[in-house]
């Protein structure tokens, strides 16, 4: 009896540690491989508990291999995601280098214009970011006129406003200010 209780506690702990992500999700939200790995490990755990006279090591080795397979998938996904981010960063830096080379070859009048950076915030917490407006060569008056075009008379109505390189605005409104 004592052997079964110890096995139940140890194997349950291993299940929770090894398959913690799968055990917290619905079966319908999991991939087929996740379900197969969890059910296979559960079967091995049941076999180890039901047959206390058999040694635990021959049943524990495949159990640990299933956990290793399950966990290694997440490590591979993380590695692939980091690699993908690394590739995007290289492409961005190459594009930035191209922009700086293009700027050197531009006509002198064109070289003075620098487009805004992606995601340049113009309003944060209902306050105008004058430094970012200066970067794009605009004034607070211009920003107020642009907001009026959208029907906002008070800058405090806008919690956050970002402008992309094409001049599109993305804004988050202050939920405590009413729209006049």
From TrEMBL:
Residue ranges occupied by any YetF C-terminal domain in the UniProt entry: 115-161
Alphabetical keyword list: Cell membrane, Membrane, Transmembrane, Transmembrane helix
Coiled-coil stretches: none
Predominant localisation class: membrane
InterPro entries for this protein: DUF421 (IPR007353), UPF0702_alpha/beta_dom_sf (IPR023090)
Subcellular location: Cell membrane
Entry's transmembrane regions: 6-23, 35-51, 57-76
Name of the protein described by the UniProt record: YetF domain-containing protein
Organism: Sporolactobacillus shoreicorticis
Family annotation (PANTHER family): UPF0702 TRANSMEMBRANE PROTEIN YCAP
Similarity field: Belongs to the UPF0702 family.
Membrane topology qualifier: Multi-pass membrane protein
Gene3D superfamilies (alphabetical): bsu07140 like domains
Top-level taxon of the source organism: Bacteria
Keyword Transport: no
């Amino acid at each position: 009896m004592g052997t079964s209780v110890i096995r139940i506690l140890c194997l349950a702990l291993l299940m929770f540690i090894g398959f913690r992500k799968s055990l917290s999700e619905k079966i319908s939200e999991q991939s087929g491989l996740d379900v197969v790995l969890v059910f296979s490990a559960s079967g091995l755990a049941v076999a180890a508990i039901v047959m206390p006279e058999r040694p635990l090591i021959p049943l524990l080795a495949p159990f640990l291999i299933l956990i290793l397979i399950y966990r290694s998938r997440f490590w591979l996904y993380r590695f692939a995601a980091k690699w993908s981010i690394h590739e995007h960063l290289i492409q961005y830096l190459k594009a930035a280098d191209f922009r700086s080379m293009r700027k050197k070859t531009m006509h002198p009048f064109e070289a003075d214009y620098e487009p805004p950076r992606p995601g340049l915030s113009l309003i944060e917490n209902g306050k105008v970011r004058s430094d970012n407006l200066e970067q794009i060569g605009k004034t607070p008056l211009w920003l107020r006129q642009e907001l009026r075009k959208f029907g906002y008379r008070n800058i405090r109505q806008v919690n956050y406003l970002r402008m992309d390189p094409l001049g599109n605005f993305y804004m988050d409104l202050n939920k405590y200010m009413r729209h006049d």
